[in-house]
Amino acid sequence: MPQATPMTETLQAATYDQNVRIGGLPFFEAVTAREISAVSYVTLLRSLATIYDAFEQVIVQTTDYTLRTIWGRDLHKQLLLQQDIAAFAGVPIPKIPAAELGAEVLAEHIRLRAVLDPRSLLGSAYALATWNMGGAALCERVKQALRLDGSSGASYLASFDTWGQAHWPQFAESLNVISLEPEAHKQVVLAARETLDGIEQLVFLLHPLNEAPTSDLVTMLNPLAGNHPISGDIAEIKAMLRAYERISRLFPYIDLRYGTRGRKFCWSDAGWLISLTSESQDSMNHQVQWLTRLLSMRGMPQWHMECYLQMLYEELIHALPANRDRYATLAGAAQMLAHERRTSISDAAMVSLDNIFYEHVGPEWRAWMPNCGGLLASAVADEHAGIAHALAGIEKWMTDPARFPEAWIAAARDVIGRARGAGI
Questions:
Q1: What are the pLDDT digits (tens) for 114-166?
Q2: Quick check: 171 and 70 in contact, CB under 8 A?
Q3: What is the spatial distance between Cα 330 and Cα 113, in angstroms, rounded to a whole number?
Q4: For the chain, which has fewer Cβ within 10 Å, the N-terminal or C-terminal residue?
Q5: What is the pTM of this model?
Q6: Could you write out the DSSP letters of every residue in 235-279?
Q7: What are the pLDDT digits (tens) for 215-264?
Q8: Cα 124-126-127 angle, rounded to 5 deg
Q9: Where does residue 389 fall: left (phi above 0), alpha (psi -120 to 50 degrees), or beta otherwise?
Q10: Alpha carbon separation from 312 to 157, 276, 347 (Å, rounded)
């Protein structure tokens, strides 16, 4: 049943605390005290440009007409951000790895929502349109602190107040007339909160300025990752994010089952593996085997990592071709996993079993959750390789009658039985 409360009211209530926290961060306290530095301010502008670029790219590419019409030309911010950044052209502003990574992470969450649930980006649109209603006083304090003349350098901040006065009623009406089922409505709210979480983290990093190197920033990829190193090169991290976007298209199962938490662990794991590429192939294989066996027991068959490592290698050599030889250990580890799988399930058998699965359940399921037959077959291969509970880790989820219809469950059991049979 569609929601009864207007969407803007729900979003305002759901994000109120976040907006209050953002406004109370030390960055804005420094603005009020006229103590903000040019480095902190320009870093904010650069980071926001990364986020808006990602959002507007998915808006251009989406086939969701409602999403495209919500984001009118009055909300385009890149030109304002670039004008403000240009006002500091004569000031040396170093790149701040923490802020750059924080912006890339939020941008990737936006891109992945465009892949998995584009309508949820209505929440991101709301958050980006309304997050900083600071008013003329805030702009004036920024200009005083940074000795800016006229509107130069603060046009982005000023745009929120003028947009609110001229366009908010139409924007709110456009959101409120959209009818969504409860789950879709929930995802819109989650997208708004996710966007504001990313902005809050970004602004928090800017005063006092977090100048830690990228290699020390694993918790920005995954707050639950502990304290292990990741790649120290932001270009490598960006390549990793692109590889994850590709793997999420190949295996939507991972995001659908494990959500954002699983995504973040995949990011931190890949960042760690990139940091090991200077080690020997044997060392890389040992670490990959340890990690993938652990993940297989938790419902992520080794075929997932086999494909992920290959995509990671491809994205890295595309971004940094001079490092091709070093990254080859990732491709080598993917080949090691493939060789282990093929002793039980050949490539041809994987394709055949996957096709059999979707012959049972139909093309609509394949479009939504591709490669599930192959994942089940690869879990059988993991079981044959001696990984305890490898099949159980995925089978229980794939055969849950509360989640899937009888045809799906029957198809899963059929594929498992075939994969276990002789001659596969």
A1: 999 999 999 999 999 999 867 788 889 999 999 998 768 999 999 998 898 89
A2: yes
A3: 27
A4: N
A5: 0.92
A6: HHHHHHHHHHHHHHHH-HHHHHHHHHHHHHHHHHHHHHHHHTTTS
A7: 999 999 999 998 999 999 999 999 999 999 999 999 999 999 999 999 99
A8: 65
A9: left
A10: 38, 13, 20
Nearest Cα to Cα of residue 375 among 367, 241, 383: 383
Closest by CA position to 198, among listed 111, 110, 120: 110
Dihedral sign (CA 93, 96, 102, 105): positive
Q: What are phi and psi of 243, to 5 degrees?
A: -65, -40
Cis peptide bond upstream of 208, omega within 30: yes
d(C-alpha 336, C-alpha 277), whole Å: 15
Torsion of the alpha carbons at 388, 391, 260 and 327, rounded to the nearest 10: 70
Residue type for 337, please? Answer: L
CA angle (417 as vertex; 253, 334 as ends), nearest 5: 50
The candidate with the shortest Cα–Cα distance to 186, out of 117, 247, 241, 253, is 117
Q: What's the full length of the chain, in residues?
A: 424
Q: Stretch 367-387: mean pLDDT, rounded?
A: 97
Q: Could you tell me the residue ranges of all domains in the chain?
A: 7-212, 234-342, 347-420
Hunting for tokens 């990793």 — which residue is that? 240
Q: Please name the residue ranges forming H helices in 298-371.
A: 302-319, 324-342, 347-361, 363-368
Domain boundaries 7-212, corresponding CATH code: 1.20.910.10
Could you tell me the two tokens for 9?
A: 């009211």
How many distinct helices (H) and strands (E) make up the chain? 21, 0
Neighbour count for residue 129 (Cβ, 10 Å): 23
Task: Tell me the C-alpha distance between 114 and 150, whole Å.
Answer: 38
Q: What is the Cα–Cα distance from 403 to 396, expressed in whole angstroms?
A: 11
What residue type is assigned to position 406 of the chain?
E
Model confidence pLDDT, tens digit, residues 55-78:
999 999 998 888 888 998 899 999
